Amino acid sequence: MYRFGSDNRNVDREGIIRDMERLEKLLADLWVVGRSPFPFGRVYNDKTLRNAPLLEDWRPAIRATPCLVGLVTGHPTLSGSRRRIATSDLWLISEELGFARTLSRWYRLGTPACELGKDSEDNGR
């Protein structure tokens, strides 16, 4: 996840470019697999996999990744207003400018939860 403000001075541009390159390679591989006839095993030949690392004793796992949670309105695929969601992976965020980019889409940022919690505490006194 990359944070930045209106001055763009603290943006890790090199990191963004590295991630763009990695994502472009992934996208190219997905295009090859997606457009290839079955079986997929024939998509890649020995040249592609010759220098790939060997992973032993492997298993699928889940790891935490940054995302946003909150109440969404106007989502293109989730109906309703103020529906509680967790977004896809968070890539860019600017609280100052009021927007974020996840793997799937852009979001406009409204009031953060910490301010809602603070207001709730103040109202309860």
Describe the protein's architecture and organization.
By secondary structure, the chain is an alpha+beta fold. It has one domain (2-123). Helix content is 30%, strand content 18%. The chain has 3 helices and 6 strands; from the N terminus they run βααβββββα. The chain has helices spanning 13-35, 46-49, 113-123; strands spanning 2-3, 69-72, 83-86, 90-94, 99-102, 106-108. The strands form 2 sheets. Strands 1-4-5-6 form a 4-stranded mixed sheet, with no helix packed on it. Strands 2-3 form a two-stranded antiparallel sheet. β5 and β6 (106-108) form a beta hairpin. The model is unreliable at 116-125 (pLDDT under 50).
Relevant terms:
125 residues, disordered C terminus, alpha+beta, extended, 3 helices, two-stranded antiparallel sheet
Topology:
Layout (H helix, E strand, L loop, with lengths): L1 E2 L9 H23 L10 H4 L19 E4 L10 E4 L3 E5 L4 E4 L3 E3 L4 H11 L2
**Low-pLDDT windows of residues:** 116-125
Order of neighbouring strands in the sheet with most strands? 1-4-5-6
Mean pLDDT across residues: 82
The number of distinct helices, counting runs of at least 4 residues, comes to 3
General form: extended
Classify the helix fraction into a percent range: 25-40%
How many extended strands?
6
What class would the helix/strand composition place it in?
alpha+beta
Over the alpha carbons, how many angstroms does the gyration radius reach?
20 Å
SSE sequence, one letter per element: EHHEEEEEH
Question: What can be said about the biggest beta sheet?
Answer: 4 strands, mixed
Overall tally of structural domains: 1
Strand-residue proportion:
15-25%
- The end-to-end span amounts to 37 Å
